[in-house]
Write a structure and sequence with these properties.
The chain contains six helices and no strands. It has 177 residues and is an all-alpha fold.
Length: 177
């Protein structure tokens, strides 16, 4: 292995890191409601996000297995499932970056939400680059939590309606208004 291959590997890694951060930022800006819901689920229902993410990770494994199948229709279904789960993953990743950004903003006194989002995205991406701990602990946990919060953010909200309290109409017995 020569120095050019090492530099090429570093350049590819940095390009992937930059593109992931940009994709997360664009998703957060394009889908603010879903991103906020994913952030809220991560902040309030961490265990639920984790267990839903585990189920989704099994679906990712099934989808990638289907993509490797030589039969065309199975490969097509697997690719559609993998792309759908990738979209869910991106929404959840935007929620993670938004949550990290808001926590960084609280600590640093930042005033712009875009700056906080960029900071959260960059910190999250660089954390996954750290050798061993980032690769084998942070990255899988991040994927599981992003899948879980993304699914919960995309699912329709349960809306509860309560009947308004209407005072009874007073009836005039005299007939005079």
């Amino acid at each position: 292995m020569n120095l050019a291959l090492v530099q090429f590997g570093v350049a590819i890694t940095m390009a992937l890191l930059t593109s992931w951060s940009a994709l997360v930022i664009v998703t957060a800006l394009a889908l603010p409601q879903q991103t906020h819901r994913a952030q809220t689920f991560l902040d309030k229902n961490t265990k639920k996000c984790f267990f839903v993410g585990l189920v989704m990770a099994v679906l990712v494994f099934i989808a990638l297995t289907m993509v490797g199948n030589p039969a065309g229709p199975i490969k097509l279904v697997g690719m559609a499932l993998a792309l759908s789960l990738g979209g869910v993953l991106i929404v959840g990743g935007a929620g993670i970056a938004s949550l990290l950004g808001s926590r960084i903003g609280e600590m640093s006194g930042a005033r712009t939400s875009f700056g906080m989002l960029v900071r959260g995205s960059i910190v999250h991406s660089f954390a996954m680059l750290f050798p061993l701990l980032g690769w084998f602990l942070m990255l899988p946990l991040s994927i599981i939590f992003a899948l879980g919060s993304g699914v919960l953010a995309i699912l329709p909200q349960k809306q509860t309606y309560s009947s308004p309290i209407i005072p009874p109409l007073s009836q005039d017995v005299t007939g005079v208004a």
